[in-house]
Amino acid sequence: MAARFGRGIRNASVGAAAVCAIVAGTGTAGAAPVYPVPPADPFYRAAADITHAPAGDALEVRRVPAPPGILDVEA
Predict the structure, then answer these.
(1) CA angle 50, 66, 1 (to 5 degrees)
(2) 2: closest CA among 59, 41, 43?
(3) Is the peptide bond before 65 cis (omega within 30 degrees of 0)?
(4) Residues whose CB is less than 8 angstroms from the CB of residue 21 and which lie 6 or more positions away in sequence, other chains included
(5) Is 22 helix (H, G, I), strand (E, B) or coil?
(6) Where does the signal peptide begin and end (predicted)?
(7) What DSSP state is assigned to residue 24?
């Protein structure tokens, strides 16, 4: 899943619910809740994390590397 937005967001992989919450802007602008990436999953960048951003901000979410047969979907 790749949703493109921009400021203050690092490459990361997160669950769809976390992405929806960020895109919807459910939270306080300037707050920085962190959605950790599961370290046990080799398809995720273990050190990556993502911080909250108001709705409309840029956000890029990627799986690294993509599992065989799975393509990133751009939202």
Answers:
(1) 50
(2) 59
(3) yes
(4) 27
(5) helix
(6) 1-31
(7) H
Token look-up 């960048």 returns 45
Residue 74 has φ and ψ, to the nearest 5°, of: -90, 125
For tokens 């951003």, name the residue.
Answer: 53
Q: Each residue of 11-70: pLDDT tens digit?
A: 444 454 454 444 444 444 445 555 554 555 555 443 344 444 455 555 555 555 555 655
pTM of the prediction? 0.14
Instruction: Provide the CB-side half-sphere exposure for 75 (13 A, CA).
Output: 14
Residue 49 forms beta bridges with which residues? Answer: 36
Q: Where are the domains of the chain?
A: 1-53
Cα separation of 2 and 40, whole Å? 21
What would the two tokens of residue 37 be?
Answer: 């990436």
